[in-house]
Amino acid sequence: MKIDNLITMANQIGSFFEAMPDREEALADIAGHIKRFWEPRMRRALLGHVDADAGAGLLGIVREAVGRYRGVLE
């Protein structure tokens, strides 16, 4: 799967949860959604992108969620 597609999907998830009034809950929900619905190779590719390119193209809330909940996503 191309990283551009993963970035688009992650940003769509982030945009949805960004509207939540509780930012901590939004971050947890972003990570939880990715954990539940993305297969492991997709999660590894996203984590690799964050490591290699500092999450270029990702919304700030997505980068923050991935950073904070990395252990959940691995």
Averaged pLDDT: 97
> In angstroms, what separates the terminal alpha carbons?
17 Å
Query: How do the helices and strands follow one another from N- to C-terminus?
Result: HHHHH
Q: How many separate structural domains?
A: 1
E-strand count: 0
User: The biggest beta sheet, please?
Assistant: none
Report helical residue fraction.
Answer: over 70%
Oligomer: single chain
Number of helices: 5
User: In what range is the share of β-strand residues?
Assistant: under 5%
Tell the overall outline: globular
Protein name: Formate dehydrogenase
Organism: Cupriavidus laharis
InterPro entries: Formate_DH_dsu
Question: How would you characterize this protein structure?
Answer:
By secondary structure, this protein is mainly alpha-helical. The protein has one domain (3-73). 78% of the residues lie in helices and 0% in strands. It has five helices and no strands. The longest helix has 16 residues, at 3-18. It is globular and about 30 Å long.
Q: Could you outline the blueprint of secondary structure elements for this entry?
A:
Elements: H1 3-18, H2 23-37, H3 40-53, H4 60-68, H5 70-73
Structural key phrases:
5 helices; globular; 0% strand; 74 residues; single chain; mainly alpha
